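Subject: for your reference before the review

Hello V.,

The reviewers asked for a structural picture of the protein, and I figured it would be easier to keep everything in one thread rather than splitting it across files. Below is the amino acid sequence we used in the manuscript, unchanged from the supplementary table.
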Amino acid sequence: MNYELFIAKRIIAAKQYKSSISSPIIKIAIIAISLGIVIMMIAIATGIGLQQKIREKIAGFNGHIQITNFDNNYSEITLESVSTNQEFYPEFKEIDNIDNVQIFATKAGIIRTASDFEGIILKGVSNDYNWRFFEEYMVAGKLPDFSQDVSTDVLISQEISNRLQINLGDQFNVLFVKDDPSKAPWLRVFTAVGIYNTGFQDFDENFVIADIRNIQKMNRWAVDEVGGFEVLISNFDEIEVKSIEVYEQTASTLNTQNVIEKYPAIFEWIGLFDNNIYLIIAIMILVAGINMITALLVLILERTQMVGILKALGASNVSIRKVFLYNAGYLIIRGLFWGNLIGLSILCIQKYTGIITLDPETYYVTNVPVYINIGYIILLNIGTLLLCLLMLIIPSIIISKINPVKSIKFE
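And here is what came back from the structure prediction:
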């Protein structure tokens, strides 16, 4: 029989335990652990959630990997065409975890209305385009259909709609500069059939999604000439590996660039979230551990006579230390229980209501995104429990300093 656990349970169940001098200190320790786990859960869930949401939005506008001609510059505009007669199109047969390969082309233009004008990037796509990203962020209208004849239907952002007063179903003019600046620009008339809002203002204020055949016609490209290819992968964590594999499967005249290489500043910024998460976890566990050390020392000092009696009966210092560590473990688990309950409640409320908002100009999202994964929650709880118990091993050595003769005569 594990008599150390038996004694620990008796101590926990005793009425004196709940009304003793140590009771307020124990409650403070439990509250500290609960608050610590709540803050750690929120830090991890929102940090990872923000990283994933920003990655998702950048990939939604650019794909995970872009394949273009080496002659193109590194702006958002495709200058040189690429033939669609490639071995990897419409799919990479020798690379797994590739969701889609889709053609695209971009061209700079100016939307002109009766009272205003705005520079935009017209992104041309075809019927192989994966609309899953824009489906999530549609606020009005429908997605354009480019499977039939050349279409003038376009998808615009709510940002452009508000700034230029272009409503659903409105037609508007777009000017495109020709290769020869001395010639009059092209004038194209498009119809807004859908409005999206991703909250990523850098993209929302620029991109208009249209039929790629409009750009092919203006650039005098053949039907098999496009600006490039976008590759969508299943797992973003594999983007570096997949970039190399894609590069190896493309012709020597083509260049591949993933979104991390294309937008290094943004990815360096969101990479700093990991450091913040690690720092918060370290501080919270340290605070919880210190509170538990205080509670343990008070528990030991409060039961000095019991320690003396156990020693007189032949109990070893290790066994007595186990009694108090079991006791401390119970307190830690109580704190973890309430912390998980409160933390998950807060995260679920935010996840399904989006009650806490953010400035999209700074964070690229309109509300705090939440990532909930049972795996990291279990690891966080196990890690907190083990680290707190490890921190309690050294202060529990005070038990070996208690003299049974003096402690029994204490009262």
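For the response letter, the relevant points are probably these. The two ends are 31 Å apart (CA to CA). Residues 71-252 form one domain.

Happy to draft the paragraph if you're swamped.

O.
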